From TrEMBL, chains A, B:
Residues 41-60 bind DNA. Keywords: DNA-binding, Transcription, Transcription regulation. This is TetR/AcrR family transcriptional regulator. GO terms for molecular function: DNA-binding transcription factor activity; transcription cis-regulatory region binding. PROSITE patterns: HTH_TETR_2. InterPro entries: Homeodomain-like_sf, HTH-type_TetR-like_transc_reg, HTH_TetR, KstR2_TetR_C, Tet_transcr_reg_TetR-rel_C_sf. It comes from Orlajensenia leifsoniae. It comes from the Bacteria. PANTHER family: HTH-TYPE TRANSCRIPTIONAL REGULATOR BETI, HTH-TYPE TRANSCRIPTIONAL REGULATOR RUTR. The keyword DNA-binding applies. Pfam families: TetR_C_24 (PF17932), TetR_N (PF00440).
């Protein structure tokens, strides 16, 4: 995704040749995930990229700005799933299925960015804003589970808040073992999640 | 569980009055979870407990021995679920349901110990042995999912390894939000997990 900078028009690039904003961000997110955000300095990033610190500051005003851009990418992708499911489906149950499938795709497509998001603990203003957006997303999904239950599509004996947590606990756990290029592609993985969560593993009579 | 040391016979205690081995372990596990294993020294534990370092060494020969005992507690409880499900149930599907319910109960009953286990990354021999036992547990559950599928109880279109990961991804995520004394008790939580995972959320026609 970021290795084909050669094919982009030169005018679209900022900073030193070969390192546009997206490439700096990819390297930063990989380092944050490997060493932790606090332990990763701009100097370490500059060394990894083989560029100067000021070349990084050309793209991002601070380490916090890097983090904010990275977290926004994961959150915007997840929020986009809610928006597009709203446009596509009629029943709440169908929307919920689209949201679960879409979230699996976001996780696979933006694996390092979602991994970073899931590690945020709220230590800074940037992290607290990201957590607030994640909570708003969770609330929207919880409401959707409630509507699907109220329309009679989902069983009535469930606590919608607990179920939302279990569903996203399951989906988020994928970051711990999924590796791109493995035997399981995103479509199959999304189908497995729906099989477990909505249809149930038990064979129907 | 550890605050009622007063009611135990004095002969059962080791070390200074009020701090038996279990109490030292509880405090150590809480500190490991809060600050990380590497960042927690025996000196920090001694300060937290208000006892000397040698009083801790009276119970545990090293920090590694503390970690090993703590991880063994979580792993033994999980392995016990497999053993007791084997004795209780006939079909593989019934066994799987017992394992899922039992694992939720272990998680609730041994929350700090399971939390510690789930953070192990394999940096030391003790951690690597714990990871090997966890993998053996996961393999046993994966085999059980496979047998339940082969006996016709579970749908045939699933990847048993992915399903096992999704099931325990969901169960393990409970450590991130479950707090003892909350509105959801362990039985209800176990039923919610089974509702999501085995029966499926969708209302059956």
């Amino acid at each position: 995704m970021t290795s084909d900078t050669e094919s982009r028009p030169a005018a679209a690039r900022r900073g030193r040749p070969g390192y546009d904003q997206a490439a700096v961000l990819d390297v930063a997110v990989a380092a944050f995930n490997e060493y932790g955000y606090d332990a990763t300095s701009i100097a370490v990033l500059a060394e990894r990229l083989g560029i100067s610190k000021s070349a990084i500051y050309h793209h991002f005003s601070s380490k916090d700005a890097l983090l904010e851009t990275a977290l926004d990418r994961a959150l915007s992708a997840l929020e986009g799933v809610l928006v597009s499911s709203d446009a596509a489906a009629v029943s709440a149950a169908d929307r919920l299925e689209l949201v679960l499938r879409g979230a699996v795709h976001v996780l696979v497509d933006e694996l390092p960015y979602v991994t970073l998001l899931l590690r945020v603990r709220g230590n800074t203003d940037v992290e607290r804003r990201a957590l607030a957006r994640r909570r708003a997303f969770d609330r929207s999904v919880t409401e959707l589970v409630g509507r699907a239950r109220d329309e009679g599509s989902l069983r009535a004996d469930i606590d919608v808040r607990v179920v939302e947590r279990l569903l996203f606990g399951m989906i988020n756990s994928i970051v711990e073992w999924y590796r791109p290029g493995g035997p399981e592609d995103a479509d199959q993985l999304a189908s497995d999640v729906v099989a477990v969560a909505l249809d149930g593993l038990r064979q129907r009579a």
